Amino acid sequence: MAQHGRSGFSLFVGNLPYHTTADELGHFFSQAGPVVNIRLVSDRETGRPKGFGFCEFESEQAAQKAISTLDGAEFNGRSIRVNWANK
């Protein structure tokens, strides 16, 4: 599989609670492997969180582990969706 993103392997993370912080999400995903970057998406006009973001991993193996173990997992009371960002 080809490398995703500029410097790592990027995953889409959906159905996040609106109050999620990048630190919380990074800590949660670090159980799958080294996290390089977390980006939470907010509405450009209101600045309010949209409930999804992206998690970038150092290795494809860590990203694949995150998909297989964390897709559907509970995070702060919600069942999150995790899959490749560009598919």
TrEMBL record:
Domain of life from the UniProt record: Eukaryota
Entry's Gene Ontology cellular component terms: mRNA cleavage and polyadenylation specificity factor complex
Keywords, alphabetical: RNA-binding
Record-linked SUPFAM superfamilies: RNA-binding domain, RBD (SSF54928)
Domain RRM: 9-87
One function term, GO molecular function aspect: mRNA binding
Annotated PANTHER family: CLEAVAGE STIMULATION FACTOR SUBUNIT 2
Protein name stated in the entry: RRM domain-containing protein
